[in-house]
Amino acid sequence: AVGRRFVAGVRTGGARERLRERLEPFFAEHDVLLTPALARRSPAAGPWHERGWLRNVLANTAYSPLTPPWNLTGWPAMAVPFGTLPSGAPCAVQLVGRPGSEAVLLDVAERIERLRPWRRIAEPVGA
Asked: 6: closest CA among 70, 69, 64, 15?
C-alpha cells in the first residue's frame, strides 16, 4: 500500500517536475551524464519477496542510489558494462541523457563497448 501511494504521488505530484527543472540547466550544456551504475556491491541474494516494500527500497537505495532519479524524471538512462572489479565482479557505468536522446546514449554505449569490449561469458567471481 505504501509503495502504491508513493508511486502514484511521484507520477502525479510536483516532485517529478521539480527534479526535471533542477536538471534541465545541466542538460542544456551537456549531452550525456556518466555516473557509476552502482555505489557498491549488491546485497546478498535472499527471499526478498518475504521482506516489506520499505525494507527492499532502503536496501536497493544503498547500493544503487544513482538510478532512481532518472526513473523519476522519465528521461533516458542505461547501464553499460565497463569491465570488472579486482575481485572479478562486473561493474558498469550509467549513461543519462535529455528527453529524446536515446540515439545519443546508444552511440556513447557503442563507443564504450569498442574501448572496453564486454565479456560474453562471465568468469565465476573469485576464480
From this structure: 15
